[in-house]
Amino acid sequence: MAVIECDPDKARQRLESAGVETEPGNTEHERWRADVDGATAVAYDGKVVIQGGDSARLEGLLREDSGRVHVYFDGASRGNPGPASIGWVLITGDGIATEGSKRISDTTNNQAEYAGLVHSLEVADAYGFEEVEIRSDSELVVKQIHGEYNVNSPDLRKLRVRAIELLDGFDSWSLTHVPRELNERADKLANEAFEDG
Question: Which of 187, 181, 182, 189 is nearest to 100 (CA)?
Answer without folding.
Answer: 189
